[in-house]
Amino acid sequence: MANLILDGDIGMWYSLSSIMKFSFAILLVAILSSHPVFSLGAAEVEWKAGLATVKITPERPVPMAGYSSRTKPFEKIEQDIYAKALALEDRQGHRAVLVTTDLLGLPKSIAEPVCDRIQQRLKLSRSQILLNSAHTHSAPILSLEERPESGVAREDWQNIVAYTRGLQDMLVEVVEQAFARLEPAQLSWGSGVAHLAMNRREFTPRGVILGVNPRGLVDRSVPVLRVDTPEGRLRAALFGYACHNTTLTQTNYNLCGDYAGFAQSYVQERLPGVQAMFMIGCGGDANPYPRGTMNNARDNGAALGQEVSRILASPMQPVRGPLTCEFDQARLPLQQLARAELEKMTNGPSWQAGNAKAMLAKVGRGEKPAMAYDAPVAVWQFGGDLTLVGLSGEVVVDFVPLIEQAIGPLQVWIAGYCNDVFGYLPSAHVLREGGYECRGLYTTEGFFAATSQDVLVAKVRELADRAGRQRLK
Question: What pTM, to 2 d.p., does this model score?
Fold first, then answer.
């Protein structure tokens, strides 16, 4: 009965006065603070959890990542951006940490030195560290070296490099803070649905373009992990969604986290003291809809935040230990293209031509093209209650049903953009169809082969088996 009343209140949200909205927010806080799942005694506590947040807004304006046409620094801070850490420890002392960032993506060259330092300082293994980037296109460019050929001014490149080095320090520090704040906790999870994602692979007589495809596949699920004190007080909410953070386009010069940043703010403003964290899913071929303005970004964020709030106020499933973390590299095959093929591709779309030119230059230097790319894959198994799959790269939505078929569809959370954002990871059928998502690697040279799909899925299956996931039907 309580659930029916709550759902009705949310349904009337848009028509209530501001006073009624405020009253509802107070009611929501009261409901969340006394969530019946978590009225547990100290002897039943499964976890310790530690939380930390660090603001990573640049002190000096730098150019923003995501759209190559923007070469000048951002003009305004619309919303601060953050890195947030959730440290976990189960009853057996198994530890792990998840870090979310309001950034376009952390390539391996930036992420791995951070992970090395975390391992050294906190005595963790690589499998116990998971980094995820929200893929907002309104955050700073990251680089550890200057690239003057890009059209960005030298002074701006110097600021970018300085910011990136400082960011690495902050990521290590936020993890240390989270582990220093470990406290007894209870975990639970649930899921819902939000409708802002739109498949962007539009089919035209000229081929597949970046557009709007209402009939195309998207993953609109909203997984939520809830972190409570043993007494049932909400401390944190980790939530996901599978969609590019591209509500804001290349005309935007205001720094912010796009819809994901606004969704986190929405939850935190209505639940004071709660740390909201966003982890993006397999949204490599999905854009927000509608898009184009800051108001669209705020509205999309509010829609996602409302669904997260609804899920938090609904019954959720307990998440128990032990925690088993597995990590490995999937050696993804790359296309072996002849010189004539590469030369033809240099006359194609810009997103294809640049990669092809780089490969031709490599061949011209007498270097052999790479045969494969090592893509990080992580699987975290929470007892028999939840499997978290962390894929790297810009993963298209096809990998959601493929992985569900491989390891079972129940109690699984699939994230993308984890540990290394190296380029798009298309499925075999996306490669057959063509389009922007077939552009391949952008941190180095190469185009993925169709067989990379099966290699990745097989690696996920292997790690899930090693982690102890039961094949739930």
Answer: 0.91
